[in-house]
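User: Can you recover a sequence for this backbone? Please restate the input before giving your answer.

Assistant: Of course. Working from this structure:
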């Protein structure tokens, strides 16, 4: 039995990657089996019927390459998704380019696999002029590309809603005007609280309760008392809003609350592992060790 204090997202997170991988494997397998069955019936009506193993090779090679391309499409969707709000034309153009690359890799990959299987069977696979064939394949691939990317986007949006997205609650206050005799550089407003929406519930978290932070694409993951929340910002920009005496960057994609560090474990090469009071560990790069010492001091 899982911990009843954990919400649905926290219970799902430990097995999330396994479920995602299993989903795509099962989906592509079922599609390959169904397409093979349909194609076998179809080729029997042709003047020159083909062996079942050939049909299975055609469909199996196509879906295997599609399965291997899914991680690349996840990365493309994550990278291009911010453009849809501010640069729609660039968003469409980059996806168009990505769909062409996707199709070329798909066609070359499946033709290569077919040639390999045919060679193992003592036969020769006829590409039939793959350049002209690619135009036909692209018309199919662009639909597959769009459906997979849309599915990835919908799933990512669902997971964001399930995880909960935070936003700064306190409105930024205008910095005090500097004294004429002693001009000072205005300090950025530092939020003290964040409003978190999760599963139709809203609650507050204090900035001082953040244990550590992690860059997650276009978001910053806030780790608070064993819970994870996302804030739409970059780690670099968000750190300028936090107290530098309390929050220190310790890695290219991690920052910590100095008051939440329990132990610093030195590693080979000058790196370190930070053991936090919440039981988690955070990597510390050698290049940030001096900043950590200065902050801890």
């Amino acid at each position: 039995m899982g911990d009843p204090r954990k919400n649905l997202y926290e219970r799902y997170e430990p097995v999330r990657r396994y479920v995602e991988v299993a989903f795509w494997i099962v989906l592509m397998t079922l599609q390959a089996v169904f397409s093979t069955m349909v194609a076998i019936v179809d080729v029997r009506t042709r003047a020159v019927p083909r062996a079942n193993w050939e049909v299975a090779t055609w469909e199996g090679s196509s879906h295997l390459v599609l399965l291997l391309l899914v991680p690349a499409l996840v990365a493309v969707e994550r990278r291009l998704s911010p453009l849809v709000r501010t640069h729609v034309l660039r968003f469409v153009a980059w996806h168009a380019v990505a769909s062409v690359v996707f199709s070329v890799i798909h066609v070359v990959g499946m033709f290569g696999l077919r040639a390999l299987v045919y060679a193992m069977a003592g036969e020769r696979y006829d590409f039939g002029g793959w350049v002209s064939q690619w135009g036909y394949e692209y018309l199919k691939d662009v639909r597959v590309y769009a459906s997979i990317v849309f599915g990835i986007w919908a799933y990512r949006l669902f997971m964001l809603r399930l995880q909960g997205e935070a936003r700064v609650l306190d409105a930024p206050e205008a910095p005090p005007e500097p004294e004429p005799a002693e001009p000072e550089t205005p300090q950025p407003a530092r939020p003290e609280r964040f409003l978190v929406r999760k599963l139709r519930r809203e609650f507050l978290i204090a900035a001082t309760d953040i244990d550590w932070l992690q860059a997650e694409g276009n978001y910053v993951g806030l780790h608070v008392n064993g819970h994870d929340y996302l804030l739409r910002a970059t780690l670099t920009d968000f750190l300028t809003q936090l107290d530098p005496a309390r929050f220190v960057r310790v890695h290219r994609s991690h920052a910590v609350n100095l008051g939440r560090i329990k132990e610093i474990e030195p590693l080979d090469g000058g790196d370190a592992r930070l053991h936090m009071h919440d039981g988690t560990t955070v990597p510390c790069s050698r290049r940030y060790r001096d900043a950590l010492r200065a902050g801890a001091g």
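That completes the design. Helices lie at 8-12, 16-43, 52-80, 83-86, 88-120, 130-163, 235-239, 289-296.
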